[in-house]
Model the fold of this input.
Amino acid sequence: MAILEVFMSKSKSNILIYTLALILLVPSLLHAARLKDIAHIYGVRDNQLIGYGLVVGLSGTGDREYTIFGQQSLTNMLQRYGLKVDPKKIRVRNIAAVMVTARVPAFCKVGTKVDVLVSSLGDAKSLEGGTLLLTPLKAVDGNIYAMAQGPVSVGGFGAAGAGARVKKNILTVGRVVGGATIERELPIHLTSGEYLSIVLNYPDFTTAARVAEVINEKFKANLAEAIDASMIKVKISGIEQPNLVPFISQLENLNVVPSTVAKVVVNERTGTVVIGKDVRLSTVAVTHGGLSIVIKETPKVSQPLPFSTGETVVTPETQIEIKEEKTPLYLVPQTVTIADLVRALNAIGATPRDLIAILQAIKAAGALQAELEII
Done:
């Protein structure tokens, strides 16, 4: 019986230890993020392509005769098909010169289809109903990596009459869904010798150190080293090349608690204020009052008697009224959490736009322990 009591007491103590460990672990897990969400592998990136082309089949909404390069493009295209046309005699309103752009994700293979964006280059009114002719797309190195062609989809519509016109959204920009076909693969270098580099999306020394620590704990070896605030090098000399993909998969699914900078973001156009969780406020006294001035002018007319030789005199009469709100001086105590900060700012009773001015003044006084960013 005594042995059973000892066993039960040990079981209860173990359960208590596990519970406490779980309680301590849960907050860190709640604030953790996957490595793939806060960083990327060096060299794995999108590539931009660009090309010049023609959109045909428009219903009289294409470039006018003043757009010379559109006429020259049409002339050159017809000459390739054995037709000789004088560019000065072309009066076609069914074509439009366009710039074609595409964003190619990493690891796209030959035959992969991507969307392209078609933007009018001249004075065309609309690309609705048009078809993009075969257009080569080049990268910054001048090589052709994709060919684009297909019907242009415009996210809007327009209608016009003799005395009115209706238009919704932009009609001179359209998209060709799956219109570009990759003809050449873009080079990507995953590794540089014995190392694989991880780059943080938002550079931070603390986050970089934590990433290296988590990787070393995961693989029980000293593989990762933080080079600077944005790059972590991972040693892969002991990993075979065919196993590189599952190794990267394990890396990008590791949970890391990122460190963020205390920041207050203010949008003066919309009156939006976003306060980060690490923002702190020192003890400060705040008062915010409004001063309104009303100016009212009333013309005072003096007319002469009937059948007299006098003239009508108009004398302006001005009334000026000044009102100033009586607002007390609020003492905002030193805050510890974001909830305390919000509670203290709400006590002032200011509108969002007034809050922007208050935050700017508090920052100027040195009492806002955060970075104030105005967008």
Remarks:
- The chain has three domains: 47-156+169-182, 190-256, 263-374.
- Residues 153 and 161 are 23 Å apart (CA to CA).
- Residues 1-10, 20-29 have pLDDT under 50 and may be disordered.
